[in-house]
Amino acid sequence: MLTQPAEALTDLLLGLVVCALAIGVRHHAGIHRYWQATFWWAGAAALAGFVHHGFLVRWPAVADVSWPVISVMVVVAASYLLAATVEEVLGPGHTRTFWLLRTAGLLAYVVLAATGHAGVAALLACESITFACVLGLWGWAAYRRDPLAVPVLVAIAASGAAAGARALSPAVTARLHLDPTSLYHLAQIVGMVLLYRAVTRGARRVRPEATAALSGRPPARRSRP
Q1: Which of 143, 138, 164, 140 is nearest to 153 (CA)?
Q2: Residue 26 half-sphere exposure, CB side, CA atoms within 13 Å?
Q3: How far apart are the C-alpha atoms of 63 and 122, rounded to whole Å?
Q4: pTM for the predicted model, two decimal places
């Protein structure tokens, strides 16, 4: 028997859907591998959440280890999302920019850990810096009228709204016969599907306009296939 049936089954559904999306991304030519990794890690984290909610929570000592592991998997997925964003918005060859942005969240966590506030909650809170960087880059891309920007921002907004479901009162979500965590899992499916649609509809492109804007050089002309 599952220890937390609703949380486990909705996490299982989320994991299966996201892994299916990862397979779909893999079969679309021209999509950067960072997007594939984003879906794979997100799906793997959800499947690990199924094991956690379904079985491991009955042993508190084990759950105290499994939950941080799942959180680290979410952090890895966020890292690949940032890498894909840098690649799409700024173009290839901006590894240094990625690490500068990524280090901001990691340094924030180091500071919290040094002051005695280490933990999963602190780690995930620091990941908000990563998502702020992602939103900032796609906002800048939207300002430059990148056709991929708005669909990605809509998907991120949907995922953010899904995360907000966790803050709802159980009395509110009970009307849907769900707890806040289970509702979050189901709502997160919408955000991931929207991200998949955005990524697969706009194949990866090198954006010379974005790169030129940062370097000060005029964009190079390139022929369309």
Answers
A1: 138
A2: 10
A3: 18
A4: 0.84
Residue range 122-146, pLDDT digits in tens: 776 777 888 999 999 999 999 999 9
Q: Which residue has the tokens 């000060």?
A: 216
In the chain, where are the structural domains located?
5-90+130-203
Sign of the alpha-carbon torsion through 51, 168, 138, 79: negative
Tokens of 70: 């799942």
Q: Give the residue among 217, 191, 189, 209 at the shortest CA–CA distance from 147.
A: 209
Q: One-letter amino acid identity for 16?
A: L
Q: What is the DSSP string of the chain?
A: --SSHHHHHHHHHHHHHHHHHHHHHHTSTT--HHHHHHHHHHHHHHHHHHHHHHTGGGSHHHHHHHHHHHHHHHHHHHHHHHHHHHHHHH-SS-HHHHHHHHHHHHHHHHHHHHTT--SHHHHHHHHHHHHHHHHHHHHHHHHTT-TTHHHHHHHHHHHHHHHHGGGS-HHHHGGGT--HHHHHHHHHHHHHHHHHHHHHHS-----HHHHHHHH-PPPPP----
Looking at residue 113, what DSSP letter applies?
H
Give the whole-angstrom CA distance, residue 151 versus residue 197: 8
pLDDT digits (tens, 9 = 90+) for 82-109: 999 999 999 988 988 898 888 887 788 7
